[in-house]
Amino acid sequence: MTDPLLPSDPVDLGGYRLLGRLGQGGMGAVYLGQDANGRLVAVKMIRPEYADDTEFRGRFRSEVNRARQVPPFCTAEVLDADPDHPTPYLVVEYVDGPSLAEVITRNGPLGGGSLHSVAVGVATALAAIHGAGVIHRDLKPANVLFALGTPKVIDFGIARAFEVTSQHTRTDQMVGTVSYMAPERFDTERRAVVGPAADVFAWGAVVTYAGTGRTPFRADSPAATAARILTQPPELSGLPDRLREVVARTLAKDPTERPTAHELLDLLLDLDTDVKTKLIRPELLQAATAARRTSRFGFGGRRPDRVRRTVLAGVAVLALGVTGVITANLLPRLWDGQSGAPHSTVGADTSGPTSSSSRVVGRPAIIDRLDRPGQWTDSRSDAEGRCVFGDGRLEARTGMSPVYRCHGPQDSFKDQTVTVDATVLTPGACAAIWFRAAGANAYLVSLCETEVRLGVDTDDGVTQEARAAVAGAVLGHARRVGVVVQGDKATVEVDDAPLITTALGPPSLTAGRVTFGVIDDVISGDARAGFARVEVTKL
Predict the structure, then answer these.
(1) How many whole angstroms separate alpha carbon 36 and alpha carbon 16?
(2) Which of 127, 367, 393, 531 is the most buried (most CB within 10 A)?
(3) Which helix (H) or strand (E) holds 367?
(4) Are the beta carbons of 297 and 416 closer than 8 angstroms?
(5) In this predicted structure, what is the pLDDT of residue 124?
(6) Catalytic residue (one of 12, 35, 80, 138)
(7) Is 373 within 8 Å of 386 (Cβ atoms)?
(8) What is the C-alpha separation between 363 and 133, in angstroms, rounded?
(9) What SS3 state is found at 287?
(10) What are the helix (H) ranges across 16-173?
(11) CA distance 336 to 491
(12) Structure pTM?
């Protein structure tokens, strides 16, 4: 439902014509807008009092950049944003449908295929969100909308910009709705490290509400609800038996005992194969299947470290306003990533069936679909070569130079994993991945037509190359290339198969940038290579 604009509302924001109000929240107003092509969009304008907060703008920019990398699997796609506008704003896909909260209020609890579809749809969204290294932080029925019957999750990834801004940190406030908050979210000292397991807990509460019309820890007040979340088992009567078992796992007090978003999706899709195809609509099943394949280098397939439980001495919760802004000092918990080392040998290693990258876990540092200018930029007028965006990827092309690099972020990394879809587009070309690049020196991984190489790139050329054959067709086919770098060793994988593990030769480069480009092995003057879905994880 759209309300008329208020006299104080703008009629245009960043080139979007505002048609009406969709709602108002703690961060600002949400408008129904229209772009230059007539497409309807949702425009969230940040409240003016946050516009002058430099720290908020920085965090908002960072969170929006991450949110734009979330694939649109049961999520409302982030289309545009301008953190530097006098009033920062965010533009997302407009979902013309009711929220889950409105559906339950109007029609009562869901059952059968409708309930199962909500469970799968919201889990699909979390797998996509967490796979991009984003945490929702405010999952609730009002943030689940229905587009042609398919659930879509909205408002993910930007709540943290509000929650951890200095003025709110000082008052010990946090954003959220008490009934859907995980126990660890009530700790004011460590809430900045609350992880994706909190979203999985919220999923359990949302599905319970969808199937029963009540939340699993319902009480007479927000403070009493928080106390039940911290100390009591959930009330799940009324849910179907097999779904109830899954929901119970997601509502565990200890975040390490909850499934990850990807594991949750696996559990739901595998409940009953015969029944599943009857309960889930084909388009939802397609989205869920695609989300299962989203990267697990984000949060989706990673378990948090097990941490010491702290005995709770008391509960002190104050609910403020309709969004459930609360003050608390409860349950110190710490979520952090694990780290490990791949098996290292000198020379090629093709015997192990298990990807070494899958055994190494760190913190996502760069995530970019490379389907538009952003962290990597285009360079169309350079005679030496050029980098352009098209067909959903970044394409590097040589010109007068046999080697051409695309300009990427300035972030410097020491120990890291780099994964990217690389495509050799022309005969004699190699897709190039430089890491620990510092000045004219770098380590270089080259995916060529028949082999992959790892060497040292200096002013004197590429030396000390280790090589391994690549199975299957390379030319014109995207291959997932992974590089694991720890200390003085690196492992190169193609499509999860470790092909090269070797010591990094001199000069000893301890840290540097990551970027991509193309090498013309046959000096044709027109070598081309494409790149998509890059993820750099700091170990």
Answers:
(1) 7
(2) 127
(3) strand 363-368
(4) no
(5) 94
(6) 138
(7) no
(8) 8
(9) helix
(10) 48-51, 54-67, 100-107, 112-131, 159-163, 166-170
(11) 24
(12) 0.57
The two tokens of residue 118 are: 């909500």
Please provide the DSSP assignment of 172-211 as one string: T-B-S-GGG--GGGG-TTTGGG--THHHHHHHHHHHHHHH
Domain ranges of the chain: 96-327, 357-538
Which residues, at least 6 apart from 101, have a Cβ–Cβ distance to it below 8 Å? 140, 141, 142, 144
Q: Which positions ≥6 away from 417 have C-beta within 8 Å?
A: 297, 357, 360, 362, 482, 483, 484, 485, 535, 536, 537, 539
Token digits of residue 215 = 């939340």
CB 130 within 8 A of CB 299: yes
Cβ neighbourhood burial of 144 (10 Å; 0-12, 13-18, 19+): buried
Helix (H) or strand (E) holding 243: helix 241-250
- Cα–Cα distance, 309 to 317 (Å, whole number): 20
What secondary structure letter does DSSP report for 257? G
- Is residue 469 within 8 Å of 494, Cβ to Cβ? no
Q: What pLDDT does 401 receive?
A: 86
For the chain, the residue count is 539
Distance, CA of 192 to CA of 214 (rounded, Å): 29
Q: Tell me the C-alpha distance between 156 and 70, whole Å.
A: 9
Supply the pLDDT for residue 306. 34
- Predicted pLDDT of residue 187: 76
Local structure of residue 356 (DSSP, 8 states)? S
Burial 278-311 (b: 16+ CB within 10 A, else e): ebbbeebbebbebbbebbbbbbbbbbbeebeeee
User: Which pLDDT score is estimated for 362?
Assistant: 54
Q: Which residue has the tokens 């010591």?
A: 503
Q: For 7-71, where are the alpha helices, taking DSSP H only?
A: 48-51, 54-67
Q: Six-digit token pair at 52?
A: 């002058």
The CA radius of gyration of the chain, in Å to the nearest whole number, is 25
Is domain 357-538 classified as CATH 2.60.120.560?
A: yes
Residue 138 bears catalytic tag: yes
What pLDDT is attached to residue 172?
34
How many C-beta atoms surround the C-beta of residue 345 within 10 A?
A: 16
Alpha carbon 539 to its chain centroid, in Å, reads: 17
**CB of 511 closer than 8 Å to CB of 465:** no
How is residue 127 written in tokens? 């797998």
Q: pLDDT at position 294, please?
A: 60
Q: Return the closest-CA partner of residue 40 out of 126, 147, 138, 136.
A: 147
- Residues 468 and 107: their CA atoms lie apart, in Å, by 61
Q: Is 481 helix (H, G, I), strand (E, B) or coil?
A: strand
Enumerate the β-bridge partners of residue 325.
Answer: 320
Q: Which residues of the chain have pLDDT under 70?
A: 1, 26, 157-176, 188-193, 272-280, 292-364, 381, 524
For residue 357, the model assigns a pLDDT of 41
Helices 197-212, 241-250: axis angle to 10 degrees equals 150
**Fold of domain 96-327:** Transferase(Phosphotransferase); domain 1 (1.10.510)
Instruction: Read off the tokens for 393.
Output: 């990827």
